[in-house]
UniProtKB/TrEMBL annotation:
Protein's UniProt name: Pyridoxamine 5'-phosphate oxidase family protein
Residues annotated as domain 2Fe-2S ferredoxin-type: 586-676
Entries under SUPFAM superfamilies matching the protein: 2Fe-2S ferredoxin-like (SSF54292), Ferredoxin reductase-like, C-terminal NADP-linked domain (SSF52343), FMN-binding split barrel (SSF50475), Riboflavin synthase domain-like (SSF63380)
Domain FAD-binding FR-type: 327-426
InterPro entries: 2Fe-2S_ferredoxin-like_sf, 2Fe-2S_ferredoxin-type, 2Fe2S_fd_BS, Beta-grasp_dom_sf, Cbr1-like_FAD-bd_dom, FAD-bd_FR_type, Flavoprot_Pyr_Nucl_cyt_Rdtase, FNR_nucleotide-bd
Pfam families: FAD_binding_6, Fer2, NAD_binding_1, PNPOx_N
Coiled-coil annotated residue ranges, if any: none
Gene Ontology molecular functions: 2 iron, 2 sulfur cluster binding; oxidoreductase activity
Organism per entry: Pseudomonas putida
Length: 676
């Protein structure tokens, strides 16, 4: 009988595995780690270390504090006589807090990094010899490091003596400025494994200047998408000690800090910071500033493209404040009321300050009900940002809208939230613009039209407007005035399905019958336009299908549907369709984190919104069709499926619960947890 090979030891410890499991990649990373994490250096890595002018090292002192530092020397100061050893010939300054950890038998982490090429490699090992200016390191692990956040710099050497060491237990103004201006730092961490074995790791972190937040002696750092090793954060989960190294690349100053960390896996700040997937903090306990400590100087070349896609703390705090304000109910006064048609009325609103918004967005409005929970409805802004005022135009067709028509007058107030919604005019196109609206669906298109004309772009615009009768056709005077002002740039095409006898073709409308693709085809060659559609679900779906049938690209058709349905898209042949996990067909547990409630979803339970309501929760909603975004909820973990995908998907980490159901729960998948 053939002997089975002994199972290989996992390359990951408990902390790394915990984070890999948290993001659902543990099984894949177990197999991957066996391939890429070696107990020796490949020849190309040995050659790479030999050409470097510096290394970053991580060590641990006698008090158990990790420190990160720079080891430097002439090219060739690091060499590898064999794949298991790295020899380093370098001075070890007595004032470097990392030096006491460089003793025989001590664990060390090494990062070989070449800033001008963004190449990098890591070694974790043991110091076998330490004498004079020489270190011999036995390689225990050799592996690649994520290059995504390395800023490109070129180096030179200077002959300048070191200027001494300053110690402190707190960050002074100079240290704070150095950290806040940094686009790169290095972090040392370690973990004590079974049988008394210690493993030290050192890595780099990068981002835009301002990506490290300083609050007194507390640093907060975003953790971006990387190689999924989680070497550093895995260490910090097991042992919260870390040492950070900040280098002033212009003058050779180094700032070394050590302290206690906390890994944050769930916080509103994570979603507010662009690119962050987690956060971690360090409470500084010891600070060492060594001026002109290294002889290398670097000139900045360019940011990593990935770094430019990340945020700063100033931006994150602004975004957080904006989100918090968006959740708040504000009181706006009613300045003016105008009847736009038989059943559509405009309300001009006064906010308490400037309100930024994009043409096409809407505002949630909270309508009181005697003896019942308030109704929340969303109404499109029919004014443009350039108008200097806020206007919603509401059709009387339900209890909320009838309340506005019958109860609200000039001088009254409304409870509203700030504008939201992704059905907005894209400003990066110069193609002719086609706006097609039925009934009250013309309201967001009016905002788009007014803004385009105010910007004087010279862009040709076609407006198609449909209604049942002339009495129900809104904004007639306003459109006539805009057409007179714009001249040949604006064409208006009106269709009435049941025109009054006194309504004259050519004067009051252009087409008799329901507005649809045939009227559009009759008026336009349909060769190169951007289309924006808004109206009842059947109207937008029919128009969408008609446009796709004449080969209008899917990406040039923007739509918002009213009612409990969303647009069903189908992409171009050369474009991928929406990829999403299959819907659950068996019962799935659903956890509501904020309310500490649990429910069991079954296929008969309907949407996640309906499940939450059945469990006694009252999430905000309006359209129940995925159009307005009012029900958007943070997805803590798990996956969802959209039986009818919304026209615009929410950002990652959020879900429109009004039109989503749980995805099939595969073995090992994360449970579905919503922040409700």
């Amino acid at each position: 009988m053939a002997r089975q090979p002994a199972p290989r030891t996992s390359p990951w410890h408990a902390g790394e595995k915990r984070l890999q499991e948290q993001v659902g990649v543990a099984e894949r990373m177990e197999a991957f780690g066996q391939k890429v994490i070696r107990d020796h250096m490949p020849d190309q890595h040995r050659a790479f270390y030999h050409q470097l002018p510096f290394l970053v090292a991580g060590t641990v002192d006698a008090h158990g504090k990790p420190w990160a530092t720079v080891l430097e020397g002439p090219e060739g100061f690091a060499s590898s006589p064999d794949p298991k050893r790295l020899l380093i010939e370098t001075g070890r300054p007595g004032d470097d807090p990392a030096t006491p950890g460089m003793v025989v038998g001590g664990a060390i982490g090494l990062l070989g990094i070449e800033l001008h090429t963004r190449r990098r490699n890591r070694i974790n090992g043991l110091i076998r010899q330490s004498f004079g200016g020489s270190l011999e390191v036995e390689v225990e692990q050799s592996f690649g490091n994520c290059p995504q956040y390395i800023q490109q710099r070129v180096y030179r050497r200077v002959d300048e003596p070191a200027q001494g060491r300053l110690d402190s237990t707190a960050l002074d103004s100079h240290a704070v400025q150095m950290i806040e201006n940094a686009d790169t730092f290095f972090v040392a961490s370690y973990v004590d494994l079974p049988q008394g074995h210690r493993a030290v790791d050192v890595s780099h972190r990068g981002g835009r200047p301002g990506f490290v937040k300083v609050e007194s002696n507390r640093l907060t750092i975003p953790d971006y998408a990387g190689n999924l090793h989680f070497n550093t954060l895995g260490n910090l989960l097991e042992n919260p000690q870390a040492g950070l190294l900040f280098v002033d690349f212009s003058n050779g100053n180094v700032l070394q800090v050590t302290g206690r960390t906390e890994v944050i896996l769930d916080s509103p700040l994570i979603k507010a910071f662009e690119g962050a997937e987690r956060l971690w903090t360090l409470m500084v306990e010891q600070v060492v500033l060594r001026r002109a400590a290294i002889s290398l100087r670097w000139a900045f070349q360019e940011y990593s493209p990935t770094s430019l896609m990340t945020g700063t703390w100033a931006e994150a705090e602004q975004r957080l404040q904006q989100r918090e304000r968006q959740r708040q109910w504000l009181t706006w006064g009613v300045l003016r009321v105008e009847q736009e048609s038989r059943d559509i009325r405009s309300f001009y609103l006064a906010a308490d300050g400037p309100v930024p918004f994009a043409p096409g967005q809407h505002i949630p409005v909270r309508i009181p009900q005697a003896g019942a929970a308030p109704l929340i409805r969303t109404y499109s802004l029919s004014s443009a940002p350039s108008d200097g005022h806020l206007r919603i135009s509401v059709k009387a067709q339900g209890p909320a809208s009838r309340y506005l028509h019958e109860q609200i007058a000039v001088g009254d107030t409304l409870q509203v939230r700030l504008p939201m919604g992704s059905f907005t005019l894209q400003g990066d196109s110069d193609r002719p613009l086609v706006l097609i609206g039925a009934g009250v669906g013309i309201t967001p298109l009016m905002a788009m039209l007014r803004e385009q004309l105010a910007m004087r772009t010279g862009r040709r615009i076609h407006v198609f407007q449909g209604a049942r009768s002339l009495a129900e056709l809104p904004f007639q005077r306003e459109l006539a005035q805009l057409q007179w002002q714009a001249g040949a740039l604006l064409s208006v095409h009106r269709a009435l399905s049941q025109p009054e006898p006194e309504a004259l073709p050519g004067r009051d409308y252009e087409h008799a019958g329901r507005l649809g693709i045939e009227q559009v085809k009759a008026a336009l060659p349909l060769d190169d336009y951007d289309f924006y559609l808004c109206g009842p679900a059947s109207f937008t779906q029919d128009l969408y299908e008609g446009l796709r049938a004449v080969h209008v690209p899917d990406g040039r058709i923007h739509a918002e549907a009213f009612g409990p349905s969303t647009l069903r898209r189908h992409g171009n042949d050369n474009q991928p369709v929406l990829q999403q996990p299959p819907a659950a067909s068996e019962p799935v547990p659903v956890y509501f984190a904020s309310s500490a409630k649990e429910a069991r979803w079954a296929p008969a339970s309907g949407t996640l919104l309906e499940l939450a309501e059945a469990r006694g929760l009252s999430p905000d909603f309006s359209c129940r069709g995925g159009s307005c975004g009012t029900c958007k909820t943070r997805l803590v973990s798990g996956q969802v499926h959209y039986p009818n995908p919304p026209a615009e998907l929410p950002e990652n980490g959020t879900v429109l619960i009004c039109c989503a159901v749980p995805a099939r729960l595969e073995e090992g998948a994360q449970a579905l947890v919503l922040a409700l």
